[in-house]
Amino acid sequence: MRTIDLSPLYRSFIGSDHLAALVDAASRADKQSTYPPYNIELLADDKYRVTMAVAGFSADDVSIEVQENTLTITGKKNAEENDKDEKERKFLHKGISERNFERKFQLGDHVKVLAADMENGLLHIDMERVIPEAKKPRQIEIGSRLIENS
User: Fold this and answer.
1) SHSP domain location, by residue (predicted)?
2) Are 28 and 36 in contact (CB under 8 A)?
3) How confident is the model at residue 14 (pLDDT cuts 50, 70, 90)?
4) Confidence of residue 85 (pLDDT cuts 50, 70, 90)
């Protein structure tokens, strides 16, 4: 496995240990399963959409959870229903996988999940980066002084 030298980043960025952790997590994610397939779209400057192909799953079979900066999408088919369907149906070819899955996405700071929708076998999750006023850049005039309330 090829490693990446991040030492130039440490010299020029403050807090790049977080960046290094993200690069490490991404390299580990490459080794995970590619099921189900998904797209990540940039809809506008601060709006994103994850679209995941979940053929064979209903809205009741899929759960979406956000904890800290991790978006987790889990698909679980009811085992009893699956066994019943398999016994009743006889496949000549089965190319549509309906196996259980769990897919995790690392969200950037201040990214909020807005909505989720399922249509035509595709799960759409819309997100937006909402930067608080305190974190937005502000112009400081030269010669100005901070006035503290006593």
Assistant:
1) 29-145
2) no
3) very low
4) low
What values do phi and psi take at 23, rounded to 5? -65, -40
Distances (CA, A) of 54 to 17, 36, 45, 96, 98: 35, 7, 27, 10, 8
Whether the per-residue pLDDT at 125 is higher than 90: the answer is yes
3-state secondary structure of 84: helix
In 11-145, the DSSP E strands lie at 38-44, 47-53, 62-67, 70-75, 101-106, 111-119, 122-129
Distance CA 121, CA 34 (A): 17
Give the residue extent of every domain in the chain.
Answer: 1-32, 34-133
User: Residue 12: pLDDT above 80?
Assistant: no
CATH number of 34-133: 2.60.40.790
Q: Could you tell me the two tokens for 98?
A: 């309906």
Q: List the Cα angle 29/35/40 in 5-degree steps.
A: 70
